[in-house]
Amino acid sequence: MGEKAIRVEKLKKYYGDLKAVDGIGFEVEQGTVFGMLGPNGAGKTTTIEMLVGLTERTDGSVEVLGLDPGKEQDKLKKRIGVRLQSPALFNHLTVRELMDLYAGFYENAFDTKEVIEMLGLSDKANVRIETLSGGQFHKLATALAIISNGELIFLDEPSTGLDPQSRREIRSAILKLKSMGKTIFLTTHNMDEAEALCDDLIIIDYGKIIAKGSPFDLIAQYFGGKIIELLVPDLEKKDYHGFEKLEGVSKVDYPKEGKNINIYTQDYAVTIIDLINYTREQGINIENLEFRRPTLDDLFIELTGREMKSEGF
Length: 313
Hints:
This protein is an alpha/beta fold. The protein is built from ten helices and 13 strands. α8 packs across α10.
């Protein structure tokens, strides 16, 4: 195992009776992308604020790059970059001017032009910040975290509200930073993003960790097979609970809303043969059938009983 960039034990943040973060613990290896997943209000941003020393913890221990952020914030901030969800920026400066200003805060900052190009902001370099679109503003906020050239970069929901091209640019920048040996601490509620980028992750809900591990290991742990997804147009008119008895089936998810049934199987071939025979015998009309592997979205539903929205949850 590699060296630890972050060590957290029994971390808590309480606001009266509200347990925003409730006794979580995890470690982050240097040179990896580590994800914290969860819906809004789960405790992700509060955790980051404690890790960088912006919020005082109620209890527990935190070590970031060998430092206690609650006591050694001045030393720590020279070695990290931080992108919070809603940064306050100097709106009358241009993108380049603000980037140069931030670069001056660090001894070994990246070249401004390099970071502007990395985030796809070259055509906006000489534009005032107050004229940027929401998506461009979010990319700039990420660029300001990266300019630090820090050993550890915290990115809180960097792709929220971005178009597909901008999300690709953010992902490309994260992977480039990783290739340079940087450690990335990423919070997101975009499961596709987490699965594509994260070496390890935790899923947090109501201030508690409900799962931890690599995306591959977590999916294998909870599912271990593949999914046949059926679209049944008259789902509400009949009882289709016989799907559980099909050969090779380990689990069936029936929707609370909608018309899709997810059948989890260890063997597509034997299950599909049994499925065809069963639907013919029962007179079940299937409009669409797809084969896919389980995802982190499926895992979140399995753990919490509700869907994680990729935008705006």
